[in-house]
Amino acid sequence: MSEKELEARVLSIQDRHHALLQRAAKATTDMLDAIVAVKKEGASEPALQAAAAQHRRAQWRLDFVAAENSMGSTGQLEAERTLRKR
C-alpha cells in the first residue's frame, strides 16, 4: 500500500468515526430534550426514571468512545459496536 493510499484510508476511518460520534451526540441530546418535554407533560416518575437510565447508558457509551481518543484508528469496529449498541 502506498503512502497516499494509507493516508486516504486513515482519513476515511477518521471521517466515519467523527460522523458516528456526532450522530451519537445529537441522539443523546435529542433524547434529553424528549425527556424534558414529557416531564413537562406530566409523564409518570417510573417512565422518567426508565428514560433517564437509558440516557445515562447512551451518554456513558458516547463518553467512553470519545475519551478513547483514537478517532477510530485503533479499534474502529469496537467503537462502532459500542455506539450502536441498544
Per DSSP E runs of 2 or more residues, the count of β-strands stands at 0
Which radius of gyration do the C-alpha atoms yield? 17 Å
Sheet with the most strands, sense and barrel status? none
Overall geometry comes to elongated
Number of helices: 3
Q: Estimate the helix proportion, in percent.
A: over 70%
Order of helices and strands: HHH
Assembly level: single chain
Characterise the protein shown here:
There is one protein chain. The chain is an all-alpha fold and 86 residues long. The chain has one domain. It contains 3 helices and no strands. α1 runs parallel beside α3. The longest helix is centred in the N-terminal third of the chain and has 38 residues, at 3-40. The radius of gyration is 17 Å and the shape is elongated.
Layout of helices and strands:
Elements: H1 3-40, H2 45-68, H3 76-84
Helix pairs in contact: 1-2, 1-3
Provide the descriptors you would attach to this structure in a database record.
single chain, 86 residues, mainly alpha, 83% helix, 0% strand
Question: In a nutshell, what does this entry contain?
Answer:
The chain is mostly helical and 86 residues long. Helices cover 83% and strands 0% of the residues. The chain has one domain (3-84).
